[in-house]
Amino acid sequence: MAAANKGTKPKVSGVRFAPTQVVEGSSSHVHFDEKLHDSVVMVSQEKDGTFLVKVGFLKILHKYEITFVLPFVPLLGRDVCAAPLASLHLRVLSIAPHPEGYSIKCEYTAHTEGVLKEEMVLQSESNERAVVKVVVQARVMDRHHGTPMLLEGVRCVGAELEYDSEQSEWHGFD
User: Fold this and answer.
1) Three-class SS string for 118-168?
2) Domain boundaries, the chain
3) CB-count burial class (<10 Å; 0-12, 13-18, 19+) for 94
4) Are strands 42-45 and 101-109 parallel, antiparallel or unpaired?
């Protein structure tokens, strides 16, 4: 009978943690950087000199105002403008001097689901051959997946209306 009980006995195990030392003057609070890595628009420079601007999750058929800081580019100088854009979905609203480079504000319409990349070209006002390509990357969710938490620097400014046959059905009065 002892053999029958052997298989039914529950296994108990424990986890031990090393004792922690309390240093005088330290607090037990968790401190985060002022700007969390995952909560702001991220700007990085690629090997080819192109800047990649990751704006996070957006919702399809919504219009967003996106503001980010591009590091100073000596080739461009201080007076910078946007070259005409080929995209109908991305529009540069303003470029202003910033202590770290250039503060860029643009408007973007999330028109298709998935990972989207739209390009803009910045050029020097004094040397039209001095250009830098900036790629804005967004992850666009469909309308059935809720509302995304927007990163710092991204603001929803409106929704494009989509024809929905369920909402437009005629309901007569009886």
Assistant:
1) EEEEEEECCCCCCEEEEEEEEEEECCCCCCCCCCECEEEEEECCCCCCCCC
2) 36-159
3) exposed
4) unpaired
Instruction: Judge contact between 89 and 108, C-beta under 8 A.
Output: yes
Reported as a single tens digit per residue, the pLDDT across 105-154 is 999 999 999 999 999 999 999 888 899 999 999 999 988 887 888 999 99
What CA–CA distance (Å, rounded) separates 90 from 108? 5
Q: What architecture is the 36-159 domain classified under in CATH?
A: Sandwich (2.60)
Tell me, rounded to whole angstroms, the distance of Cα 55 from its chain centroid.
Answer: 2
Joined together, the tokens standing for residue 56 give: 């996070």
Cβ atoms of 64 and 107 within 8 Å: the answer is yes
pTM of the model: 0.69
Helix (H, G, I), strand (E, B) or coil at 37: helix
Below-70 pLDDT ranges, the chain: 1-38, 161-174
- Residues across the chain: 174
The two tokens of residue 104 are 């860029």
Region of residue 101 (phi > 0: left; psi between -120 and 50: alpha; otherwise: beta): left
**Do 134 and 92 contact (CB within 8 A), yes or no?**
no
Radius of gyration of the chain (CA): 26
